[in-house]
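Anyone able to model this chain together with iron/sulfur cluster?
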Amino acid sequence: MHEKTIRDRLVEYGEVLFRAPKHQIEFTKVADADALLNDLDGHPHAFVLACVMDRQIKAEKAWIIPHRISVKLGTFSIEDLCRLSRADVNNLMSQPEPLHRFVDSMSGLFYSAVQRISGQYEGDAARIWKGNPTSAEVVYRFLEFDGIGPKIGTMAANILARDFKIPLSDHFSIDISADTHVRRVFARLGLCSPDASVEQVVYKARALHPTFPGIMDLPSWEIGRNWCNARSPECDGCYMKDLCPTASRRN
Ligand code: SF4
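re: yes, here you go
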């Protein structure tokens, strides 16, 4: 019963964020890089390629890579990207300084993603989410890109639905992205044990809100970032305080 009350509040805040008017998303805090990533009409592939780059380094560093390549290349049109060889991409990713911790493997993933967008989607990455598809279709299409796993695939679908306001026919397959903030907050709220695996947190969110588990993602992440610090949670500022078992034990 108490768990449902906690669920309801997370969902309520999630719905507020979901219904908020569309605004420029701050992916990197670099204006030109964010402008490119937000240009879903002109450069939808920039968003997809940033998702492909988002592994094993900080998200801001990964999401700025499309912009940094566009500066080096003087363009980020899909036609120009398609003309690049695997070696060209490797040069762009490695010279004069590496854009990613794993330049060789990430260059291969970047190259293969561009080829996939060209071959599968006729150069228009927006076809991944156009036409009111189901959430499962969108996540599946992201999973077809080499290097994208369920965490990034569902995160991409969540951003498209929540922030870019892309209409999908359902949200069943948009899971929570169980990063360290989300896992810590789920544990402290008593929704999962402190040593719960990523899969356990994902399935707990599905059990709590099957029609759209991922709606609890941003509220949980923001609580983790703003108040629920790893070392010392600042419960007095947190809007979950009156429901949170950890907060009541601390009083
Ligand atoms: S009330 Fe405190 S422990 Fe509970 S989620 Fe908020 S910050 Fe974390």
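The mean pLDDT is 95.
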